Amino acid sequence: MAFYNPAEEVDPKCFHPLENTSDLDPLLERIGDAHYVFLGEASHGTHEYYTWRARISKRLIEEKGFSFIAVEGDWPDCYKINEWVKGYINQDRKIEDILKEFDRWPTWMWANWEIAALATWLRDHNHNHNLPKQKRVGFYGLDIYSLWESIEIIINYLEKEDPKTAKIAKEALACLEPYKERQFTSVFSSARPGCEKEVVKLLRTVREKASQYDSHEEAGLNAELNTLVMANAEKYYKATSGFGDDSWNIRDRHMMESLNTLMKHHGPEAKVIVWGHNTHIGDARATDMALGDLINIGQLAREQHSRDEVVLVGFGSYKGSVIAGRSWGAPMQEMELPEAIAGSLEYNLHQVEPADKLLIFEEEDLFEAFEEKMGHRAVGVVYDPAYERGNYVPSRVSERYDAFVFIDETRGLHPLKIKPNWDLLPETYPFGI
């Protein structure tokens, strides 16, 4: 696979050095008054991606008034973090104890010390600034995998708040319950006709009544998002059972719908920071994903909003180590991240100058230098360094992102020492991201 190599024609002076938090000034200037900032990662298991995203997020919250962080994680689990950082419940508990409740493989994505540190900062920020509850900065999950957990939460909640709607929820559960022990891929393809209508009916009812639910400040939002998971999970797992690419698009459309729901909840002046893998964050139209009609949330955000409202930031590294599993459900381990293959984005950036750097593509000649297609590394939760050459997505990088954070050498993140519930393995698109 041959890619364009801009290394010889790019002056290192075009790059911004990246050594400390103040070096993020050019990125903050590029973000300007945008309301949507997407922060990517080239793997789900790299320490520096989490810490630099945290540094960027803190500055956006403190200096530009961003309202919340939304991540590529399950809604119920991440909502526990949200409740903790906003001071709703569990204030006598340590954040690491809450994170240890994350059961779904790959647990290391969010149950790690890097997230524990960020959550602690968010709680301290909310407390130290004496923010009213409606102004406290939150932490939410956008993903689709928590079907059964969301059903249980909805029924337990509605039985207390809205018994009439709880009856609708129980009817939806009764439709699906016989298939709970089967693999996710067969649940909806095997379920009797009418399940979809019952779940959509529930979603519509909860959305109509969400503003009336007031057992705590965001109870209605929690009910609505759990019900949205139920509604879109029907489509997602049905598509997965057909072994097509539709499941990828359904998943990203769900994440975008969840994000839009959160923005509406936070009001017209809301600003959001989104954390996700580069394959979700970077505009899919600038990659070979587009050849398979695959979309992602970065593309959807650009399509739904003006260009100055959305800033997409990619991340990558040349070599180091990473946390991943050898196969689905395999124990997490720290693996070597080998030197990037010749001609790839990461290789080229290392060749220009083997140092950490920040690229703002609208500056100097960087857009033109990186508008030709080149390989861009993408490591999933399943990874084998022996097959490194298969982990590159051909990309027009300066069209895929507005900015790029490059770390020359990275290391694996620091998971909490827990084991996942082996019965809760997500069925996801074969990319493993």
From TrEMBL:
InterPro entries: Emycin_Estase, Hydrolase/PRTase-associated, UCP036794_erythomycin. Gene3D superfamilies: Biosynthetic Protein domain, EreA-like (biosynthetic domain), EreA-like, domain 2. Pfam families: Erythro_esteras. It comes from the Bacteria. This is Erythromycin esterase family protein. It comes from Salegentibacter chungangensis.
